[in-house]
Amino acid sequence: MTPTTSRSSSAFPTVAARRRWWLLYLTVTAVALIASAGLLAWNSPMPVGTRGFWLIAQHRAWSVLAMIVVAVCQSTATIAFQTVTTNRVMTPSIMGFESLYRTIHTSTVFFLGAAGLNAARTTTTFAGQLALMVGLCLLLYSLLLTSKNASMNAMLLIGVVLGAGLGSVSTFMQRLLTPSEFDVLTARLFGSVNNADPEYYPITLPIMVTAALGLVVSSRWLNVLALGRQTATGLGVITGAYFLMNHVFSAQGVVSVIIETVGGLTFLVVVLRKGRP
Prior knowledge:
Layout: H1 15-41, H2 51-84, H3 97-119, H4 123-145, H5 152-175, H6 179-189, H7 201-217, H8 219-225, H9 229-234, H10 241-262
């Protein structure tokens, strides 16, 4: 009798590929940990171990935490968005939510002045803006992905049009601002970890962890969906409107967290290269 051989599938075609990936992953992780420690202690004006040193390190730790939030949210959102849309070049920023963020803050400066923008920097305002962006995301996707004529391409096209329209409105209002108001607005719109307020983390961290865990749990289904819509359907994976809407909504939800926490990050683009089978 011939012995039975067990067959299994894996993300790595060979053992050498798995070993190479883990080696690269551990190397990058070690570099990130060393860089984080260096950011906390490098060029500190106070001697190591003193109370002043730890106060400075605590202040810098908030910036490190903001980097972690951006890294986790941007990576999970980009991979999920590219998988659902079956496009390895587009990122969630194509949906125009950064333009909505720019329009909200530009309108605040335009109608209330720079003092109004500084006064509006509260936890309540942050939660309201985040709820507005997530609510618009839910409304847009529920209408476009659950209707009778649902189309992913139509959803992407409407997102591009909304982003361009809101960007034009914000640009027009910015041209009417005084130089001092425009300077304050530009500092707020440009993505920077210094924009992250520690009071925002009790709101952003639970959203980030929930969305990231949800995407990790459904990673097996997303891996099959990455093979193509028809292939995934043939393998028994549900690719209906609600399945797609849940994952696109999760991706845009964590992108909204990034934008509201540190500002616009259009330049932060993740492009995945299709690996060999």
